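User: Could you write out the 3D structure of this protein bound to zinc ion? I've included everything you need below.
Assistant: Certainly. Input first, then the structure.
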Amino acid sequence: MEKYGIAFKDAFFGTIDWTWNSILFEVPWYTNYFWGLIAISVVVWILEMIFPWRKSQSIIRKDFWLDGFYMFFNFFIFAIVISGVFNILEVLFNEIGITVKTLAFINTSSLPTWVQLVVFFIILDFVQWFTHVILHRYEFLWRFHKVHHSVKEMGFAAHLRYHWMENIFYKPLKTFGVMILVGGEPEQAFIVHFAAIAIGHLNHANIKITWGPLKYIFNNSVMHLYHHVKALPEGKTRGINFGISLSIWDYIFKTNYIPEESGKVEIGFPGEETFPKGFFGQLFTGFGKEKK
Ligand SMILES: [Zn+2]
Ligand SMILES: [Zn+2]
């Protein structure tokens, strides 16, 4: 029992230390997610100011600060809180003999680094696409995912407005997906993580970038705005455009839907009027059935 306590403590204080050292620039720059997230956010925000898609939307849009807080909450504060629990799980799995190497399906270690990274990116993205579909499919999961869909004015920071329970759903699926297929993260995985943050920010930003013919591969702000549409099209009431970084899964599984590109469509979900608007209300939402 004691080792689980130690595993919890090590990960918890280790993550606090790591975060603090990141703030002080005392970690390698390419693993500094704290300042990395801020740098990407500032760049995308400046792009929103120079090239706004919805010209009438203000630079500090509705819920800008709420979403700004969510960025740090989900990325750092909650990561610290949950790190101990995830580490206990890792110790448990090692105990019963499931280690990274016993699971690996494909051995990518002999491939060039960039191929490893591309494979890792594609697998990670597909697992997240699938998780996202499930978040929409089942009512008890949708209740949490509604936090992300409660955004009423779209901007880059909306990317990281989501219920902390989503970390709990995504993380094990991502870890298992990657472990089972390629045996773990490649060494330079940070490149993929930073690219995913940048793409996610752009997908939510008030900037119209559609990547030309590459739109069938990469997700984009037009496609993702329709993911947030309030009035879902007939026959697709379980959602559309589930893509995270890549749009290709939606084209393959025919969940794609982009009827027009004005950027003016109403976003949200039916019944949002009674949904908690502030951080603390949203922190505890999703547990138990709503009153009708
Ligand atoms: Zn969604
Ligand atoms: Zn979104």
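The chain has a mean pLDDT of 91.
User: Perfect, thank you.
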